[in-house]
TrEMBL record:
Occurrences of domain HD (ranges): 288-408
NCBIfam families, A to Z: HDIG, tRNA_CCA_actino
Protein name: tRNA adenylyltransferase
Top enzyme class: transferase
Length: 509
């Protein structure tokens, strides 16, 4: 591998690669670009302790994507770590000290330093009985995956003349580098031992498949399938955090497919595998599950065109879940047809229930459900039959989600009929053009009645209260139907409404 070239996220299938060169490059990069880490390692070495960069930090260094949050492990006990970072760090926190972890920061670099661990698990809960280890090897074997079971002793890797001795500093007893180069996901211990200790690791496996493009080893998939029920030991908050990271990965579809294949999805997101509907020769329709995965892929592609660096969790969840109402609404029609009437309404309710149970933030839940609810509305547009009033309502109902709704609707056009697909895209092009025209003419993003609450109260002689709200809503509906009204028209319409409601309007001066 040439100097300066990072390993691709899915690994490389090249048995002739010079592994020593890869290690040397990664360690060299660490020594040259992380002076804070090197300084910290020297401080520990001077005190007679070993300090290793470990886990995801080493993996990311090999991938050429190391950030400023670094994980270390050491033979020093927590109280010794506190003494060593005191006076060196700009800030220190010990919230994780009961698990042997001390946090510190210096010059914008955040470090977590954990004493070697050789934990024991009761395999009932998730938190281990903390047991400190005596060497790096016993610490690494307890980690989740081999690609996260590598360590680098930066003090040992640097030579007195400023060179690099990667062999002296790089610790990889479980073949993590080979796994990284091949894009394979395996566990240091057996998968059964690893997942029994911490079932969350099964979701982390799916997350790494989505984030890094890894392929899990067959024994990992077998263990995940056999032990799927163990995920019930994990709190919903931790499950939600892993699912969110998975969905924001480079290839979320692959992570979802692994969850479904291993039946983990049956435990944490059962509405997704439920979309695998049986299709017989007499009642043909799309495979809803596969269709939803295609929509997810296409939504991710559209998202990246606008912003390749910020995954959109709301859009991706909406794409995955937009058709979850179909199994509950499927009806076989005479003549061999199949219908899914109101599946968007049912789907929005199902999505709200599931996302709430998973403790997703309220704004994420509401936005995803609104997209699911609205995703089908465009199909009434035809070839442009909507009135301007209907276009206004589409924009108003979408609100801040309009750009996401555009992407979701376009992603949902998955027909294999090229002519039909092109016609759908042209129709949506036309709708977007009409929206832009109306936005420019009428400022639809801030649709308000032509009279505000104060004007309504003054004209009708009403005090603040529910009746003013009803009048306001009536005027807003008129605004959506007819576009902007001038002052005289708005007042006349309000007076007509008041008369129909039996409101006695005071004489105007």
């Amino acid at each position: 591998m040439p100097t300066g070239t990072a390993i691709g996220t899915a690994g490389i299938d090249d048995r002739a690669v010079d592994r020593d060169a890869v290690r040397r490059e990664a360690v060299t990069r660490l020594l040259r670009t992380n002076p804070v880490a090197v300084d910290l390692a020297g401080r520990f070495a001077s005190a007679g302790h070993r300090l290793y960069l470990v886990g995801g930090s080493v993996r990311d260094a090999l991938l050429g994507r190391l950030g400023t949050d670094l994980d270390f492990t050491t033979d020093a006990r927590p109280e010794q770590v506190l003494r060593l970072v005191k006076g060196w760090a700009e800030a220190v926190w010990d919230t994780g000290i009961e698990f042997g972890t001390v946090g510190a920061s210096r010059q914008g670099v955040m470090v977590e330093i954990t004493t070697f661990r050789a934990d024991r698990y009761d395999r009932i809960g998730r938190n281990p009985e903390v047991v400190y280890g005596d060497d790096i090897e016993s610490d690494l074997i307890r980690r989740d995956f081999t690609v996260n079971a590598m360590a680098v002793d930066l003090a040992a890797a640097g030579t007195p003349d400023g060179g690099v001795d990667a062999a002296a500093g790089f610790v990889d007893p479980h073949g993590g580098l080979d796994a990284l180069l091949a894009g394979r996901l395996d566990t240091p211990a057996t998968p059964q031992e690893s997942f029994a200790d911490d079932p969350l690791r099964m979701l982390r496996a799916a997350r790494f498949v989505a984030q890094l493009g890894f392929t899990p080893e067959p024994r990992v998939v077998e263990a995940m399938t056999a032990m799927a029920g163990e995920i019930d030991r994990i709190t919903v908050e931790r499950v939600q955090a892993e699912l969110a990271k998975l969905m924001c990965g480079v290839e979320p579809r692959k992570g979802i497919e692994l969850l479904v294949e291993t039946a983990l999805a049956d435990r944490v997101l059962p509405e997704v595998p439920a979309m695998r509907l049986e299709i017989d020769e007499h009642h043909q329709h799309k495979d809803v599950y596969q269709h939803s995965l295609v929509v997810l892929d296409q939504a991710v592609d559209l998202e990246r065109r606008d912003d390749p660096n910020n995954p959109d969790l709301v859009l991706r969840l909406a794409a995955l879940l937009h058709d979850i109402g179909k199994p509950d609404t499927r009806r076989f029609e005479s003549g061999g047809g199949v219908s899914f009437h109101h599946h968007e309404v049912v789907g929005a309710k199902m999505a709200r229930r599931r996302l709430r149970e998973l403790r997703f933030p309220k704004d994420v839940v509401e936005q995803v459900c609104q997209l699911v609810y609205l995703h089908l509305r465009f199909h009434g547009y035809g070839t442009g039959e909507w009135t301007d009033s209907a276009v206004r309502r589409y924009v108003t109902d979408a609100g801040v989600l309009l750009s996401r709704l555009h992407k979701l609707v376009r992603a949902d056009c998955t027909t294999r009929n090229r002519r039909k697909a092109n016609a759908l895209q042209r129709s949506y092009d036309d709708l977007e053009a009409r929206i832009e025209r109306l936005l420019a003419e009428e400022d639809l993003k801030r649709v308000r009645p032509d009279l505000d609450g104060n004007a309504i109260m003054e004209l009708l002689g009403l005090p603040p209260g529910p009746m003013v709200g009803r009048a306001w809503k009536h005027l807003k509906e008129l605004r959506l139907d007819r576009g902007p009204l001038d002052r005289d028209e708005a007042e006349a319409e309000l007076l007509r409404w008041a008369a129909s409601e039996g409101i006695e309007v005071p004489d105007r001066p």
